[in-house]
Amino acid sequence: MPHSDKKEMDDEISRLIDSKSRLDHRILLTLLVLGVLVVVISCFGIFKPVHDAPEVWFQRSGSIAVFIALLVEYNVQKNKNFLADCKPSDFKFWKTNHQYNFHKLHIYSISLGVIGTIIWGYGDLLYKAFI
Fold it and tell me: What is the pTM of this model?
């Protein structure tokens, strides 16, 4: 295989991996925002069933936040492992950039998971105390 063909193939692979990483990052960030919105919306009792107390509905939102955080964290780890396995050296700049972005998502998902767990366990008390 001539050198130019290999370079073109590497460039194409680089573009495909870059676009996949960007799309995955956007989807996972959107899911994290959704997890936060679920908690915020539950504070106001929106979509609350008639027979439930608002504090119970807020408490249940914690479980949804934890589920979303776990889903995001699983996919972040999958993407980080995928990027770590990429071999070509000329992917170095964007690979480091994407790894950093996924590391930030990792921090956000862990934070959402911890906050969601606290809400899930003590949401009724928090709701009565602060809202």
Answer: 0.85
